[in-house]
Amino acid sequence: METQVLRNIKAIREFMGLTRADFAKAIGVSGSLITLIESAKREPTADFVAKLCRAFHVSPLTIYHMDMRSQLAERAGCECRATEGDQNGGE
Q1: Cα–Cα separations (whole angstroms), residue 60 to 43, 44, 63, 81
Q2: Could you tell me the pTM of the whole model?
Q3: Per-10-residue mean pLDDT, the chain, length 91
Q4: How far apart are CA 46 and CA 14, in angstroms?
Q5: What is the spatial distance between Cα 71 and Cα 18, in angstroms, rounded to a whole number?
Q6: What is the pLDDT, as a whole number, of residue 1?
Q7: Dihedral sign, CA of 32, 35, 41, 47?
């Protein structure tokens, strides 16, 4: 069963634009572990979450308790609007 934690882990990877292999390397785990976690075949351990949080500067509370997909989508929207404004002479 997919949990909020699993959705958040995948949301971070996708937001960062990383492959599973690159995401795994950044965290210091195997790519197969990322595949197992994202496919809900294995629950992430506290140690895994701690490594993820250190690698991507995210709070464990955020991983466990928030819907990061909507937050990351909002952040991406803000970055896009800022970029558009820069391209239009800062309007």
Answers
A1: 15, 12, 5, 29
A2: 0.71
A3: 85 93 97 95 94 93 78 58 41 41
A4: 21
A5: 18
A6: 59
A7: positive
